[in-house]
Amino acid sequence: MSKAKSVYVLSKGALTKLRNKGVKNCARCSKIFQTNNVVASSTTNILFCYDCASAINLVSGKIDEDFELGKFIPGYFENIDSITRAIRIDFDTTQLALQIIKKALQSHPLPSKNPLGFASAAIYYACKLNKYEIDKIVKQFPVSERVLIKNYSKLQHCLTPIPLIEGN
Ligand SMILES: [Zn+2]
């Protein structure tokens, strides 16, 4: 399998940069890229939509694995890293937060419009699981408590398996 150079989500800024370079659509299916699309670039810098990248075996098709190839994914991993360092969260809890984010991304590639808020929520959740005194650290997060709680409920939603059969 050829490896993708990077897999990432097209932020508004990234999309603008691409358009300025004249790149507007997937090199295979010609689908026009939109904000928040997941894309993969080949080692030769050709850009594909995630479906095509998957079809040509550029990526595995498992978004959480593929994202690890990417340098500037939605920013979740970098955010976890910087926040946990800033508020002094221990290594194990940081790893747990990363696992939580990965798990959430598995079923919801774009869980939140606010990567910082979502990363904070994952750390918040990891801290809860590891019995931190949550009231003491809640004010140290780089987002407001309101944003934190909102993202925390989104996170919980992402971590809840989707029922295969919907009951009436
Ligand atoms: Zn395509």
Task: Describe the structure in your own words.
The chain is mainly alpha-helical and 168 residues long. The protein has two domains: 6-67; 76-159, Cyclin A, domain 1. The chain is 49% helix and 7% strand. The longest helix is centred in the middle third of the chain and has 17 residues, at 91-107. The protein is elongated and about 50 Å long. The mean pLDDT is 84. The structure holds zinc ion (ZN). Residues 26, 28-29, 31, 48-49, 51-52 line the site of zinc ion.
Please outline the major beta sheet.
3 strands, antiparallel
Given as residue ranges, the uncertain stretches (5+ residues, pLDDT < 50) are none
What's the order of the H and E elements?
EHEEHHHHHHH
Which hetero ligands occur in this complex?
zinc ion
First-last Cα distance = 44 Å
CATH class annotation of the largest domain: Mainly Alpha
From the spread of the alpha carbons, the general shape counts as elongated
Secondary-structure arrangement, i.e. CATH architecture of the largest domain: Orthogonal Bundle
Q: Count up the domains.
A: 2
In CATH terms, what is the fold-level topology of the largest domain?
Cyclin A, domain 1
Radius of gyration over C-alpha positions, nearest whole angstrom: 17 Å
Give the total of beta strands. Answer: 3
The percentage of residues in β strands lies in 5-15%
Total helical elements: 8
Mean pLDDT: 84
- Specify the helix fraction band: 40-55%
Q: In the CATH hierarchy, what is the superfamily of the largest domain?
A: Cyclin-like
**Category from helices, strands and their pairing:** mainly alpha
Major β-sheet strand ordering? 1-2-3
